[in-house]
């Protein structure tokens, strides 16, 4: 049977490849059959200057490659470290008046970096203080969305945009920082839906 993959050993000492794998061991990259390009994370001049590189198998059978930097810094595409407590600004839409706050865990050791990871939760105002744990949120620039786990057949979904991302650094409280559509889901159907703005507090 023909091998589906072929590999190329990228040597630390070869020109621009040395920039990619500075402070790293040589890498063996696998190309699927018919594929001639693969994206590689690496560095420019130091571990602080991250970049994406594109490895092209110029002559796959001879295992020769060319490597070039791809515009853009992958560090810039990393999800922002957003944490704290978010409160619905003003009067909550119908169906959401019982929400006390949304907590986001951020990317640190007590958030996404914890074992198991903690992404956050929606807490209700009821006596039991019911929590709806967030599944892994999605960031795309300022766009932000999440879904929660189900509790007694009910879950929540949110799709929106951060109005600004410097609110933690500047400690901007009592001003809207997140806007979007919040849904309450039951049996796969939205039983409540509304546009909401959230203010932010750091909390304890």
Folded structure, characterized:
The protein is mainly beta. It folds into two domains: 5-76, no CATH class; 83-201, Lipocalin (Beta Barrel), CATH 2.40.128. It has one helix and 14 strands. It has one helix spanning 15-20; strands at 5-10, 27-32, 37-43, 50-59, 64-70, 83-88, 99-105, 120-124, 131-133, 138-140, 143-147, 154-162, 178-186, 189-201. The strands form three sheets. It has a nine-stranded antiparallel β-sheet, with no helix packed on it. Strands 3-4-5 form a three-stranded antiparallel β-sheet. Strands 1-2 form a two-stranded antiparallel sheet. A hairpin with a 2-residue loop joins strand 13 and strand 14 (189-201). Residues 1-23 and 68-72 have low confidence and may be disordered.
Features:
mainly beta, 2 domains, Lipocalin, 204 residues, nine-stranded antiparallel β-sheet, three-stranded antiparallel β-sheet, 47% strand
């Amino acid at each position: 049977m023909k091998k589906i993959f072929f590999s190329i050993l990228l040597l630390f000492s070869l020109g621009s490849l040395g920039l990619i794998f500075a402070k790293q061991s040589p890498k063996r990259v696998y190309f699927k059959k018919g594929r001639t390009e693969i994206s590689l994370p690496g560095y420019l001049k130091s571990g602080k200057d991250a970049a994406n590189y594109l490895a092209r198998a110029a002559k796959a059978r001879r295992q020769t490659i060319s490597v070039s930097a791809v515009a853009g810094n992958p560090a810039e595409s990393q999800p922002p470290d957003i944490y704290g407590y978010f409160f619905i600004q003003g009067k909550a839409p119908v169906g959401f008046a019982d929400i006390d706050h949304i907590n986001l865990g951020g990317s640190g050791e007590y958030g996404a970096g914890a074992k198991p990871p903690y992404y956050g939760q929606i807490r209700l105002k009821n006596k039991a203080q019911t929590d709806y744990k967030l599944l892994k949120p999605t960031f795309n620039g300022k766009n932000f969305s999440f879904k929660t786990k189900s509790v007694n057949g009910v879950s929540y979904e949110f799709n929106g945009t951060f109005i600004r991302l410097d609110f933690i650094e500047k400690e901007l409280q009592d001003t809207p920082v997140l806007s979007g559509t919040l849904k309450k889901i039951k049996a796969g159907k939205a039983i409540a839906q509304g546009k909401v703005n959230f203010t932010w507090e750091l909390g304890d």
